[in-house]
TrEMBL record:
CDD domains referenced in this protein's UniProt entry, alphabetically: MATE_MepA_like
Name of the protein described by the UniProt record: Multidrug export protein MepA
Keywords in alphabetical order: Antibiotic resistance, Cell membrane, Membrane, Transmembrane, Transmembrane helix, Transport
Membrane-spanning intervals of the chain: 20-39, 51-75, 96-118, 138-159, 171-191, 197-218, 238-258, 278-304, 316-334, 354-377, 389-409, 415-436
InterPro entries: MATE_fam (IPR002528), MATE_MepA-like (IPR045070), MATE_MepA_subfamily (IPR051327), MdtK-like (IPR048279)
Pfam families xrefs: MatE
Coiled-coil spans in chain: none
Family listed: Belongs to the multi antimicrobial extrusion (MATE) (TC 2.A.66.1) family. MepA subfamily.
Keyword Cell membrane: yes
Topological category with respect to the lipid bilayer: Multi-pass membrane protein
Intracellular or extracellular location(s): Cell membrane
């Protein structure tokens, strides 16, 4: 039976080989997704200008919340799914899969329609003003009504990866990105649909990804099946508990975006918000690559945890930290030497916006030295059931420690303090991980 083949592959394969088999498709897929996000920004910036770009940036947190919900249920379910496969219980794994897909669909519909009713108030709450409201509102309307396509696709992708289909998940991500980029060009430059066109391109890209992921059902090695199930409160709570750090990580991105938008609006007006929006597009790329590393090790650690193989878990973590550290050094150097070229990609901006964005990238990119390790350790603790520590890492990085620093550092160092808040936050969190890990193993 193909369940055994899938199981045996992780049982028999070396950790290094398994790590690469999951890492490469995950990174390639995320890289394409990152290119996709940057292409959105470049096209909106070049076609509609900096105010439209800022408007879409302000609406971004709603998209992030939808991604957060899909990760909450997707990673929570996938962690349990892989543990069940490691424990040789494929029937229970199928119930978990079915539960997850039904839950995310219903949840997104309810939240999207509720938010749509209050869409005007929501736009202003997120930071829109008279200049940006039209763009923020246009993007929001599409996302709130059709966001369920994206959330179901993302949840499905995570579970396909955990079912031994990292390549299928990668192909779906690549297709989603390519379709989005093509449709963005068509809707913005040819049909002149404005920011609504950019939002529809994202949704239709997700729909294509969903169709491709569905082909996994027909693979011989697939254990995924939609089966009939009764709503299980205990299973639902377990999925939500395990997936909560992933949800929080994404919500943290929204908190990060909103808090920085409001701080820059207060300190430097629309110029500050425009400069931060450019940096945030670039940051999204780096963030996705680190998320790709987490996505690569989560199926492995969950599986080895279910199979009770401590040695393989340790080897996986060592490889992941070494990889993320090398990537972090590389990204930081890119920030120091290519900041001007990166900013110029996003269109012809006033000199003050350019200068602020370039200095911001040089300071902000220091964070990547610590961020990768923080991501890896969060995934590790989440996958082995240390949910409190995983939750602390995500809550501290972009919420608790960050918000405290944003209250203190701009008063001491002005705009430089805002840019340095995230690098400082990441470093502080890394120190707490070190002490926790040392204490736990002592």
């Amino acid at each position: 039976m193909e369940e055994k083949q899938t199981t045996n592959r992780l049982d028999m394969e070396s950790v290094g080989k398994s790590f690469l088999r999951y890492l490469i498709p995950s990174i390639v897929g995320m890289l394409l997704m990152a290119v996709n996000i940057v292409a959105d920004g470049i096209m909106v910036g070049n076609k509609l200008g900096p105010i439209a770009l800022a408007g879409v940036g302000i609406a971004g947190p709603v998209f992030t919340i939808f991604v957060a919900m899909s990760l909450w249920i997707g990673i929570g379910a996938a962690t349990r799914y892989s543990a069940m496969m490691g424990a040789k219980r494929p029937d229970q794994a199928r119930i978990i899969f079915s539960h997850a897909i039904a839950s995310i669909f219903v949840l997104t519909i309810i939240i999207g329609l509720t938010a749509f009713i209050f869409r005007t108030e929501l736009a202003y709450l997120l930071g829109a003003n008279v200049d940006t409201f039209e763009y923020t509102s246009g993007y929001l309307n599409v996302m709130l009504l059709f966001g369920f396509v994206f959330t179901v696709e993302n949840t499905f992708s995570i579970l396909v990866r955990n079912d031994g289909g990292p390549n299928t998940a990668m192909i779906a991500l690549i297709s989603t990105s390519v379709v989005n980029i093509i449709l963005n060009y068509v809707f913005l430059f040819i049909l002149d649909f404005g920011v609504e066109g950019a939002a529809f391109a994202t949704i239709l890209g997700g729909l294509v990804g969903l169709v491709i992921l569905s082909t996994h059902f027909f693979r011989k090695k697939s254990n995924l099946r939609l089966v009939r199930f009764k709503f299980d409160k205990k299973l639902t709570l377990l999925i939500l508990a395990v997936g909560f750090p992933s949800f929080l990580a994404e919500v943290g991105i929204s908190v990060f975006t909103i808090s920085h938008n409001l701080t820059f609006k207060y300190l430097a007006g629309t110029v500050g918000v425009s400069a931060f929006t450019i940096l945030n597009y670039v940051h999204s790329v780096m963030l996705l690559l680190f998320l790709g590393m987490g996505a690569a090790i989560q199926p492995l650690i969950s599986y080895y945890s279910g199979a009770k193989d401590e040695q393989k878990i340790k080897q996986t973590i060592r490889l992941a930290i070494a990889t993320s550290l090398a990537a972090g050094i590389f990204f930081m150097l890119i920030g120091q030497f290519a900041a001007t070229q990166i900013v110029s990609l996003f269109g012809d901006f006033p000199e003050e916006v350019l200068a602020l964005a370039v200095s911001g990238i040089k300071l902000f990119f220091i964070a990547y030295l610590f961020m990768g390790t923080n991501f890896v350790m969060m995934t590790y603790y989440q996958s082995i059931g240390h949910i409190r520590m995983a939750t602390w890492i995500t809550a501290a990085r972009e919420m608790i420690v960050l918000l405290i620093l944003l209250m203190i550092m701009p008063r001491l160092f002005g705009l430089t303090g805002v840019w340095l808040a995230i690098p400082t936050s990441e470093f502080i969190v890394l120190v707490t991980i070190y002490y926790y890990h040392r204490k736990w193993h002592s």
